[in-house]
Amino acid sequence: MSPDGRRTPSDRVLPVRADRGSASVALVLMMTMVVAGAALIFDGAVYLAAERQASNTAEGAARAAVATGTPSEGMSEAVARRAAVDHAALLGAAAADVVVSFPSRTSVVVTVTERRPATFARFAGAESITARARGRARLEFG
Questions:
Q1: Which pLDDT tens digit goes with each residue over 43-96?
Q2: CA dihedral 116, 119, 124, 129 (to 10 degrees)
Q3: How far apart, in Å, do the first and last CA atoms of the chain sit?
Q4: Looking at the DSSP assignment, which residues form a beta bridge with residue 107?
Q5: How many CB atoms lie within 10 A of CB 109?
Q6: Going by C-beta distance under 8 Å and a sequence separation of 6 or more, which residues neighbour residue 25?
Q7: What share of the chain is helix, strand, coil (3-state, %, to 5)?
Q8: Rg (CA), the chain
Q9: I want to staple 135 with a disulfide (CB 3.0 to 4.6 A). Which of 46, 62, 92, 126 is the partner?
Q10: How far is residue 68's CA from residue 80's CA, in Å, rounded to a whole number?
């Protein structure tokens, strides 16, 4: 204090800030959220691409299976199954990932499983992203 009782600038007591460094914590938490969101968007896009590929493959394979049928005899399951699996193989699906079923003599259902390597989902323990799709076709003439 000055001799006349006034405070001088050097007499000011600065308050201790208890929140010092809290901006750093908030920044770290926000960056973690941004990276997690980006990872979710990226792996989500990979899943959507795999699902679209599986759907296109399944629908094409079902049409290929139906194309083997005739109006008089319908479809031979063995020939139709082979056509579906061959068509799916042309589009990159493994034979083990193609399931062909025949609900009736004139219809076929093809289920295709598409697997893609996971990028960010590996941190959660997932090695791959799996998508399944079904394609249906019916033999009709007329």
A1: 999 999 999 999 999 999 999 999 999 878 888 999 999 999 999 999 999 999
A2: -10
A3: 107
A4: 104, 138
A5: 17
A6: none
A7: 50, 20, 30
A8: 32
A9: 62
A10: 6
pTM listed for this prediction:
0.74
What are the phi and psi torsion angles at 5 (to 5°)?
A: 95, 5
Amino acid found at 112: V
Are the beta carbons of 75 and 65 closer than 8 angstroms?
Answer: yes
Tokens representing 108? 């076929």
Reported as type and span, the H/E element at residue 41 is helix 22-66
> Pairing between strand 128-138 and 107-117?
antiparallel
Contact 100, 75 (CB under 8 A): no
